[in-house]
Amino acid sequence: MTGVDPRLHVTLPGLTMKNPVMPASGCFAFGREYAELFDLSKLGAVAIKGTTGAARLGNPTPRVAETPSGMLNAIGLQNPGAQAVRDEELPFLEGYDVPVLANVSGSTPEEYVHVVKTLTTAPNVGAFELNISCPNVKEGGIQFGTDPEAAAALTTAVKAVSTKPVYVKLSPNVTDVTAIALAVEAAGADGLTLINTLVGMRIDASTGKPVLANEKGGLSGPAVKPVALRMIHDVRQVTGLPIIGMGGIQSAEDVIEFLFAGADAVAVGTANFSNPFVCPTIIRELPAWLDQLGLESIGAFREQGANI
């Protein structure tokens, strides 16, 4: 496509990106609604909604609540199931010049493996993102993300059947995120994404009952950005694996902070709900930040040791 600033190019395992910006999984569905608003080919990649083996209806409602500087969600991995994603959603995205990061979820290691086997032959899936950190389901999810041995075993099982690079999405709901990062790196992970949401809840002051039907949910949005930056910084100190950073990004300035912290690319989540044009806006504004910082490219943050 024309008008692409080559200084924004980022090459990660499985993902050749025109720029470092993608929507975060779970905040963009499979792109159909946003495709009515702008050309998805403008994005660096698309991280699709978490996919499980069979279709899931998700948790009971209400499952979303606003909070100061953020939101709580307990969607519960609603999705049409791996085969429907393979047959109906991924072919739609083939109409755009953008690689796909396929988010994979499950209740058991066998379910993760099944989803990866189903999706790995899709031509536009560039890489997988293992969701081992979803706090909103009763089985699987965060159970794998808080135990280094379980996280490593799951990574090994998926790597054995995947023909594409595998990124592991880390949970912030742990004492030491670097222990999980090192465990999945040793198990063969090709990259990391972080952070997922922080477990939280709201209570209706008039009834004394939880606002969410699931009682607890995942906190996202600007409120979690300082936590995300700290964890990315900590993980960058112990590993050279590529990192896709996320957590409260709303602007190009936020993206620069994440790159300084150690991210190689970023995913934008909650901001898509309040401003569906946030990703193309950030992409358009990034070149001015490179000019202001005197950097030749996004890659210069790593090449010149610009990470703090």
From TrEMBL:
Key words of the record: Cytoplasm, Flavoprotein, FMN, NAD, Oxidoreductase, Pyrimidine biosynthesis
Catalytic activity: (S)-dihydroorotate + A = orotate + AH2; (S)-dihydroorotate + NAD(+) = orotate + NADH + H(+)
Stretches assigned to the Dihydroorotate dehydrogenase catalytic domain: 8-289
Enzyme Commission code(s) on record: 1.3.-.-
Alphabetized InterPro entries for the sequence: Aldolase_TIM, DHO_dehydrogenase, DHOD_1B, Dihydroorotate_DH_1, Dihydroorotate_DH_1_2, Dihydroorotate_DH_cat, Dihydroorotate_DH_CS, Dihydroorotate_DH_I
Listed GO biological process terms: 'de novo' pyrimidine nucleobase biosynthetic process; 'de novo' UMP biosynthetic process
Amino-acid positions noted as binding FMN in the UniProt annotation, renumbered to this chain: 25, 49-50, 103, 131, 169, 195, 221, 247-248, 269-270
Cofactor: binding comment: Binds 1 FMN per subunit.
Gene Ontology molecular function, alphabetical: dihydroorotate dehydrogenase (NAD+) activity
Subcellular locations according to the entry: Cytoplasm
Protein function: Catalyzes the conversion of dihydroorotate to orotate with NAD(+) as electron acceptor.
Record's subunit section: Heterotetramer of 2 PyrK and 2 PyrD type B subunits.
Database matches in NCBIfam families: PRK07259.1, pyrD_sub1_fam
Protein's recorded name: Dihydroorotate dehydrogenase
